[in-house]
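I am hoping you can look over what I have pasted underneath with an eye to the fold:
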Amino acid sequence: MSRLSQLFGSKEREFFDLFEEAGANCLRAAGLLEQMLQEWPDHGEKLRDVVVCEQEGDRITHDIIQRLNQTFVTPFDREDIIALASNLDDIVDYIEEVADFLGLYRIEAPMEQAQRMARVLHEACRQINDAIPRLRTLRDIHHYTVEVNRLENDGDRILREAVASLFERGIDPMMVIRWKDIFERLEDAIDSTETAVNTLAGIIIKNQ
């Protein structure tokens, strides 16, 4: 193998490694959020750990963009690299917002629907984390896109139940507003997993 081929191969591996780091970071953040909602208000240090994940997501995205600016030959189109990096970063950003809202809004006890949505989000992130390594060989990820789509539909259904429950219980209006914010951020996070897996599938199809 020539030195030039080795150089290009090394650069490509860096992108794949970073995307796999980003996938693992999404999975970790989602797992922490699910644990937070299961254990709330006895959440310990998990909020701080979620913030660390958000910072790690920013670092990974920065590293991807930096390598993009330094690399002439990329494993796939630059706009696709930026889109996937941004999609994965969005997931962790929304997770961090949910975790932050729980403390900021002084939530005393979690709603059961929030726990279920967090479980859906965690599983969707698991599917993405499992799918990302297939970028290296451009293997089909149809199974993962179907599963994330199913989970996103589950999330929508749970959200509708949650909003209906808020207005049925005669909860204090301020608490309704706060929980609505939390549910909407959970929905944003779940929607972002679908966006990410669709971007991933698009890259693979385009480059096969």
User: Anything to note?
Assistant: Residues 113 and 162 are 6 Å apart (CA to CA). The radius of gyration is 19 Å. DSSP finds six helices and no strands in the chain.
